[in-house]
Amino acid sequence: MNNFTIRYIFLFIALVILQASVFNNINFMGYINPYIYVIFIAYFPIKKDKRPLFIFLSFLVGLSIDFFSDSGGINAAASLTTAYIRPLFLRSTFGNAYDYQTLKISNTTFPQQTVYLTLLILTHHLILFSLEIFSFTHILLIIKKTLFSGIFSILLSLMLVSLFSNNKTE
């Protein structure tokens, strides 16, 4: 096994365990539930030849969360949809660097990473809570849960990513 495989297997397992054991038990005021496993979808390497593997692993990470939280497949659906439309967010956030396959997200600026992560997480949460509530009469509840959980998830994700990033300041 190469370093790439070991690193992303570890990331996959660590995020699923953290989500299932810690973050699924956080519920502030009924609206704030962080979902940090989206980090796996956001930071998986951008290679066109690895796209089928990426789509499958995104589905698998969502399905793993569904298994531990008994949520009936909504995390798998939200993860799969988010992974499928990720190139749209990459192209709109990073532009030519994504188009020419020279992009490495860890080498981009913090504001670019924040915008990218915000778009990805809010989309994931909107899909997740729309499927969970599944009613247009409760659209305000869907938006409220998406915004509050999204902001909390974005902050936690940015802290985790900066804590475990390889970039060391001199």
Describe the structure.
- The chain has 7 helices and no strands.
- It is an all-alpha fold and 170 residues long.
- It has one domain (3-164).
- α1 (3-21) packs parallel to α3.
- It starts with a helix and ends in a 6-residue tail after the last helix.
- The relative contact order is 0.14.
- The model has no long low-confidence stretch (mean pLDDT 88).
- The chain crosses the membrane at residues 5-22, 28-46, 53-69, 115-134, 146-165.
- Keywords: Membrane, Transmembrane, Transmembrane helix.
- This is Rod shape-determining protein MreD.
Give me a quick take on this structure:
By secondary structure, this protein is an all-alpha fold. It has helices at 3-21, 38-43, 51-69, 74-94, 96-99, 110-133, 139-164.
Number of helices: 7
Number of domains: 1
Computed Rg = 16 Å
The helix-and-strand class reads mainly alpha
Low-confidence stretches: none
- Give the biggest beta sheet: none
> Helical content, roughly?
over 70%
**What is the terminal-to-terminal distance?**
32 Å
The count of strands amounts to: 0
**What is the N-to-C order of secondary-structure elements (H for helix, E for strand)?**
HHHHHHH
What gross morphology would you assign? Answer: globular
Average pLDDT figure: 88
Give the percentage of residues in beta strands: under 5%
Defining traits:
single chain, mainly alpha, globular
Layout of helices and strands, plus pairs?
Elements: H1 3-21, H2 38-43, H3 51-69, H4 74-94, H5 96-99, H6 110-133, H7 139-164
